Structure formats: structure tokens, C-alpha cells
Amino acid sequence: MDIFQRLAQLKSYRRTLIDNLNNEQSVEHGGVHYKEQKADALFIEERGKLKHSRYQNKTLNYYQWQLTLQQQLTLRHFRQQREGVLLASFDLACDATTFSTPPFHCGQDCYQAQLSVDAQKIVLLWDIKGPKKDCLIESHYSHF
């Protein structure tokens, strides 16, 4: 089963955010709901609950995973934008189980993503560094 097929079967996620600058950690967990599925694109909704030491929030995010003709798997985040913001593009040309993006800058911050796939889960890891940020965001997606 390829990565795209595994993405199409996700049911839940657990996300941990580690803020090294403030020595804080937040945990979010929730469900993955498919809004639209095409042969080369998945439009998903993530609904969850974020727990922090000082507060709790409900969360709602929209993402699109898309396969391109160049053997790339792209991830876009949607808020009010109709086109979505490109977050990552992973090169699937090799037979690996872990894929990384080159670092990219947004303002003064540097983002780097890594995607790992095994039989039980998909893990998306973000390393974010900047003058006011030193974060690690680890999202574990599962099929149950």
C-alpha cells in the first residue's frame, strides 16, 4: 500500500507541540474527516481538542494532500484562502519510508518537515526555529 492510500484511510491524530523557548508542551487529539477524495487529492478536516497547562481549546483545520505528476506529495493548509498555503512538498521518487523537505523561511522563522510512514501510523514532524520560536510539532496519524 502506498503513502497516498494510507493517507486516505486515516481516522485519528495526536499532535504534540513542544515549545523549547517557553519550556511548555501542548497536546491535541482528534479525528480526521474526509471532505473530498479524488484520485490525486484528499481534502480533509481535522477536529480536535488542544490541552495546554493553562487552557483548553477546540481545534478545526482543513488540509489537502495531493500527488503531483512529478512524484511529489504536497500538503496545503486552508483557512480563509481558497487556494490554501503550501506547507510542504515531499519527493516520493525513492522507495523510502521517511521523507524530508528542504528548510524554508517564513519571515524570520525556518521550517523543516519530515514525513515517516509505517504499517501502523504516519508521523509528520515539524522543526521550527527563529528569533522567537524554537518548536517541535509531532503529529501521529493512525487508521483507527
Task: Give a structural overview.
There is one protein chain. The protein has 144 residues and is mainly beta. The chain is 3% helix and 65% strand. The chain is built from one helix and eleven strands, in the order H-E-E-E-E-E-E-E-E-E-E-E. The protein has one helix spanning 3-7, and strands at 12-19, 24-37, 41-51, 56-67, 72-78, 85-91, 98-100, 104-106, 109-117, 121-130, 133-142. Strands 1, 2, 3, 4, 5, 6, 7, 8, 9, 10 and 11 form an eleven-stranded antiparallel beta sheet that branches. Strand 4 (56-67) and strand 5 (72-78) form a beta hairpin. It is globular and about 40 Å long. The two termini are 17 Å apart. The model has no long low-confidence stretch (mean pLDDT 92).
Mean pLDDT: 92
Largest sheet: 11 strands, antiparallel
CA-CA gap between termini: 17 Å
One letter per element, helices H and strands E, the order comes to HEEEEEEEEEEE
- Overall form: globular
**Number of E-type strands:** 11
The fraction of residues assigned to DSSP E strands is: over 45%
List the total number of helices: 1
